[in-house]
Amino acid sequence: MNRKALKVSAGFLFAAALIFLNGCDFAGSGRPEILSIRPADGATGIDRNTDILITFSEPMDPESCEKRFQLMIGARTVFPSGEEGLPGRFYWDNYSQTMTFDPDSALGSHMDYSIILKSGMKAHHDGHSMNLMGMRDHGLETDSGIISMFNTE
Prior knowledge:
Layout: H1 3-23, E1 34-38, E2 43-46, E3 52-56, H2 62-67, E4 69-73, E5 88-92, E6 98-103, E7 112-118, E8 140-141, E9 145-152
Parallel strand pairs: 2-9
Antiparallel strand pairs: 1-3, 3-6, 4-7, 5-6, 7-9, 8-9
């Protein structure tokens, strides 16, 4: 193989590798993930007028996320069965990557609360569902999702 052909082959291989690596999902799942929850799991002394913010790795389908969210009174270790969460309103940023839940009234003083997030929230663009891997490190993991707990001041 002559020198010019070797350079062309090496250039082609380099370009192909860049294209391949750019398209790979090194996070492993190819599915949306939770980047942060505020207040964070285990947070204490949270202002009673706080909003709950959940930031995702990509734009999400608001309806699927809102259906799988609950804010509950008390420190929970299992998912509520048939119970309603606290009432409130949802707001989204312009990119549908941050969901804000604004409770209808101030939270109670010196009380524990649990943020319930069920698996199955869907990405906006491709409909991929978030699995439990996408929720890791943000609360108590269960078979159905996560429970992130905090208490108020």
